[in-house]
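Slide 14.
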Amino acid sequence: MNDMPNIAGVAALIGERARAAVLSTLLVDRVQTATELASVAGVTKQTVSSHLAKLVDGGLVAVDCQGRNRYFRLADQDVAQLLASLTGVAMRTGAVGGHAREGDQALSKARVCYGHLAGEMAVVAYEGLLKKRVFDVSEAGLTLTRKGEAWFYNIGVDVDQARRQRRALCCACRDWGERQHHLGGALGTALLDGLLARKWARRTRDSRVVSFTPSGEQAFVKLWR
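Slide 15: predicted structure.
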């Protein structure tokens, strides 16, 4: 058994209250400074720096340096998927606060997950995009088709710019609420950014919830039907 992965070590990193708050924040708002994360976690900057060092050493968080500024993000999609799954378990077992339980329906419909759209709206959109052959699906994952590239350009998404990002261009992200997949990766983020820029939807303050306007929801559905 000594050659088994150290699950306990990863669980201990995630399980501490302040670190859990940091990771949950990075799952929603992909890049944050130590000062911003200290405020969210309710600890001093010195304390959050210690927590961040442990998370970086543990491979859960990565840091990007730009001049004197240091920006923290989740290490990769696998970490994001793990945290999303844990969030789903917490929701199903009732291990959340009263305010979160009151917003269950809104969270289930549409929310932010690692910078992209998740929830019922995102799952149905993903299925629609597959039917339109925007992506090819294989054991290796998703591949953007030529038709798909044209589709994204037609809705105002710069695919070349998305390709230059450090993460995957597109991937299927398992939705903890729907037990199906929605679109992740750089294109998933671009899709969410686009609908927010068009004011079809808005982010709910201090929440992961994305709220669609009636007209915005209709316009979003038309994109993939």
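Speaker note: The two ends are 51 Å apart (CA to CA).
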